[in-house]
Amino acid sequence: MSRVAKKPIALPKGVELNIQPGSVSVKGPKGTLTNAIPDDIKVTIEDGHALLSTDAAERVALTGTLRSIIANMVHGVSSGFERKLELVGVGYRASMQGRDLNLQLGYSHPILFQVPEGITVATPSQTEIVVQGADKQVVGEVAAKIRGFRPPEPYKGKGVKYSDETIIRKEAKKA
């Protein structure tokens, strides 16, 4: 068994882990998440911890992956995930219009991004975007889509970047 798969998943107060044949669902204060699991991987709950196990030798790596996914689900429904983006450039702005994110990124037209269900997008300032939600994968996907509208360019660093991202700059062409 892999070291990752052996590690127990702590279930905080207010979080319920329901095991059905073929799926696992986690319910907490931030919502409910469900994921499919193969029949040969067993999930058990002991002393407020969830444990994964398998007898199939070829399923050891998948068991570790599922353990990480279930741990992320537990963290998501209890405290949630957050991704911060920054807009760098003259005239680059972001604002919320109802459930839509209005982006002005130097194009001749504004970009209206429809925020999916289960995700919260906030703009604390005109150059900051905060994406929050219970599902880590969806939060990352939404942040990547927003960044994809104008990725940072390497000469001046203009564009939409993650707040913890470092942009490696290139030197301008010499005459």
Q: What does this molecule look like?
A:
By secondary structure, this protein is α+β, with helices and mostly antiparallel strands. It folds into two domains: 3-78, Ribosomal protein L6 (Outer Surface Protein A, domain 3, Alpha-Beta Complex); 81-162, Outer Surface Protein A, domain 3. The protein contains three helices and 13 strands. The strands form four sheets. The chain has a four-stranded antiparallel β-sheet with strand order 11-12-7-13, covered by helices on one side. The chain has a three-stranded antiparallel β-sheet with strand order 1-6-5. Strand 3 (23-28) and strand 4 (31-36) form a beta hairpin. The mean pLDDT is 92.
Primary descriptors:
3-stranded antiparallel β-sheet; Outer Surface Protein A, domain 3; 21% helix; 4-stranded antiparallel β-sheet; 175 residues; alpha+beta; 13 strands
Question: Helices, strands, pairings?
Answer:
Layout: H1 3-6, E1 9-10, E2 16-20, E3 23-28, E4 31-36, E5 41-46, E6 49-54, H2 60-78, E7 81-88, E8 93-97, E9 100-104, E10 111-114, E11 119-122, E12 128-133, H3 136-148, E13 159-162
Antiparallel strand pairs: 1-6, 2-3, 3-4, 5-6, 7-12, 7-13, 8-9, 9-10, 11-12
Helices, by number, come to 3
User: Helix/strand/pairing class, anyone?
Assistant: alpha+beta
Q: Biggest β-sheet, characterized?
A: 4 strands, antiparallel
User: How do the strands line up in the largest sheet?
Assistant: 11-12-7-13
Rg for CA atoms: 21 Å
CATH homology group of the largest domain: Ribosomal protein L6
> Which percent range describes the beta-strand content?
35-45%
Specify the CATH architecture of the largest domain: Alpha-Beta Complex
Could you estimate the helical fraction of the residues in percent? 10-25%
- The top-level CATH class of the largest domain is Alpha Beta
**CATH fold name of the largest domain:** Outer Surface Protein A, domain 3
Query: H/E order of the elements?
Result: HEEEEEEHEEEEEEHE
β-strand number: 13
Outline the low-pLDDT stretches.
Answer: none
